[in-house]
Automatic annotation (TrEMBL):
Belongs to the binding-protein-dependent transport system permease family. CDD domains: TM_PBP2. InterPro entries: MetI-like, MetI-like_sf. It is a multi-pass membrane protein. GO terms for biological process: transmembrane transport. Keywords: Cell membrane, Membrane, Transmembrane, Transmembrane helix, Transport. It comes from Nonomuraea phyllanthi. The chain crosses the membrane at residues 12-33, 64-85, 97-117, 129-151, 172-197, 230-251. It is found in: Cell membrane. This is ABC transporter permease subunit.
Length: 266
């Protein structure tokens, strides 16, 4: 039984951490809604000015296309590879799994330069694929680890019952195991979307065309080329961050449930 004093202390500590986390957000929002440095706009007009001057429409479309592709491909590949590593036994399984784990342990900064030369030799530099494919590879590494943990803890009785009924391996995966795994899949989807949307280094190195710049990269160019004032930069930051916040809020319940399920597994 928690005493009244302990409950009050918990609320005080949580309130302090909440204030610490919310302070930067409130600061950016208040700056974005305040009068512009030039004095020409204020309030919501700052967002319209930043949108027009910074070409954020182009950058958001590019980020949305890259994120959608990376999320769909990464999640599908992660489900299949996680199922293989979590439920099957085959020669070289451990070695191959730890090879996948190198994708988690190896930072993108370490492979960015050799990756650039590899993609340049294939003629893929300054294309959509030079931004999307490396992020698919990085995301599948974590996704395989995440889904493997889920499938290893899944009910063996359900799988065996499906096999007795004559279900194929493919059918067991998509019709038996994936539907109950929706919280884990949604959590993986949210994480991959956030990582892909916020990725800065790979687009910076791989593309030069303005039409291929992602939102974080476009925000950096907006800061350096178009404005030196903080107000429009804050408005641009809010524009870039809004899709991630909306996406998270839309899937928040499943995201938290997936994290809690992962906490009690491996």
């Amino acid at each position: 039984m928690i005493s009244r004093g302990e409950r009050v202390a918990n609320y005080v500590i949580l309130s302090v951490f909440a204030a610490f986390a919310l302070f930067p957000i409130v600061t950016i929002l208040s700056a974005a809604l305040g009068p512009a440095d030039s004095g020409e706009t204020s309030g919501l007009g700052n967002f319209a000015a930043a949108w027009e001057v910074g070409h954020f429409g182009t950058y958001l479309r590019s980020s949305l296309a890259v994120s959608a592709f990376v999320v769909v491909v990464s999640v599908v590949l992660s489900i299949m590879s996680g199922y293989a590593f979590g439920t099957m036994r085959f020669r070289g399984q451990s070695v191959l799994f730890y090879l996948f784990m190198l994708g988690i342990m190896m930072p993108s900064e370490a492979v960015a330069v050799p990756l650039y030369f590899d993609l340049r030799s294939l003629g893929l530099i300054d294309t959509f694929w030079s931004v999307a494919l490396p992020q698919v590879a990085l995301s599948v590494a974590f996704g395989t680890f995440w889904m493997r943990a889920y499938f290893r803890a899944s009910s063996r009785a359900i799988v065996e019952a499906a096999r007795i009924d004559g279900a194929s391996t493919w059918r067991i995966l998509w019709r038996v195991l994936v539907p109950p795994a929706r919280p884990a899949v949604v959590t993986l989807t949210v994480l991959v979307f956030m990582w892909t949307w916020n990725e800065f280094l790979i687009p910076l190195i791989m593309v030069t065309s303005e039409s291929l710049r992602t939102a974080p990269l476009g925000l950096a160019f907006f800061q350096g080329q178009y404005t030196s004032g903080f107000t429009l930069l804050a408005a641009g930051s809010v524009i870039v961050a809004t899709p991630v916040v909306v996406f998270y809020l839309f899937l928040q319940r499943h995201f938290v449930r997936g994290l809690l399920q992962g906490a009690v597994r491996e």
